[in-house]
Amino acid sequence: MTAADAPLPGTLQVWSDIACPWASLAVYRLRAARERLGLELDVRVDHRAFPLELANGRPVPPLADEAVQVLALEPGFGVRPWSGEHGEWPGSFLDALGAVSAAKDERVGGLAASEALDWALRRALFVSSRPVGTAQEVLAVAREVPEVDADALAGLLDAGREAVRRDFGLVGELGIEGSPHVLLSDGTSVFNPGIGDDGSDDPGVWDELLRRALAPEG
Q1: Alpha carbon distance 186, 15 (integer Å)
Q2: How do 181-183 and 189-191 pair as beta strands?
Q3: In this predicted model, what pLDDT tens digit does every residue of 45-94 receive, in sequence order?
Q4: How far is it, in rounded angstroms, from Cα 5 to Cα 207?
Q5: What does pTM read for this prediction?
Q6: φ, ψ for residue 52 (rounded to 5)?
Q7: pLDDT digits over 126-141, tens only?
Q8: Which residues constitute the domain of residue 205?
Q9: Based on the structure, what is the number of domains in the chain?
Q10: At a CB cut-off of 8 Å and minimum separation 6, what does 39 contact?
Q11: By CB neighbour count within 10 A (0-12 exposed, 13-18 middle, 19+ buried), where does 147 fall?
Q12: Residue 49 to residue 99: CA distance in whole angstroms
């Protein structure tokens, strides 16, 4: 791991796959807690890739039905069943993950653009049934995100895909258990925050994680 890979103070590093319903639940709750605490300008989100297809060695299976159940925990997300209107469920999300990584480039919009694109892709998938597995559909979503320069992003998708594979190469070293997993600069490392193996659910964990991200080191 290089210094560039380490979480920075004031940043929540979120490792996940856009296809993962539990990750979208986590991101929704993170964003809601940050807004409620008035920390939108103080705590940023650095999205890193935990590609399920590389972890499992096979295409991502349809997760739309699971998403309806999982995201029903937060009605504000607005999850809907997969309509099939725009196509079949995509088996690969490397282009989507790569675009989120590439959007961190200042020519595209930086970390704010990356976070906005990640959120837009999750909602496109689980609310609008858009098959965001192709570069074409990813860029179509990107053009709807004000923070993103989609033309600049189009030229960086190859680099983004390389970044996804590099991220995946770090998961063992960093102890990333799956999607979602949160790292903070103080050493906090949490898999699927608030969700217990016993079925317990504590959304309030995000308040504490945000406060830890905000606190100065030392």
Answers
A1: 16
A2: antiparallel
A3: 999 999 999 999 999 999 999 999 999 999 999 999 999 999 999 999 99
A4: 24
A5: 0.95
A6: -60, -35
A7: 999 999 999 999 999 9
A8: 3-214
A9: 1
A10: 210, 214
A11: middle
A12: 11
**Strand 11-16 to 44-49 pairing:** parallel
| Residue 217 DSSP symbol | P
Beta strands across the sheet bearing 189-191: 44-49, 11-16, 181-183, 189-191
We report the CATH number of the domain holding residue 54 as: 3.40.30.10
Mention every residue, 6+ apart, whose C-beta is less than 8 A from residue 186: 212, 215, 217
* 1 contact partners, CB below 8 Å, separation of at least 6: 170, 173, 174
Residue spans of alpha helices (H) in 19-156: 21-36, 52-56, 64-70, 94-102, 110-126, 135-142, 150-154
- Tell me the sheet residues that pair with 44: 11
Measured in degrees and rounded to the nearest 5, phi and psi for residue 191 equal: -90, 130
C-alpha closest to that of 44 among 13, 18, 3: 13
Check: CB of residue 121 under 8 Å from CB of residue 132.
yes
- Token code pair at residue 165: 């594979």
As a whole number of angstroms, the distance between CA 183 and CA 158 comes to 26
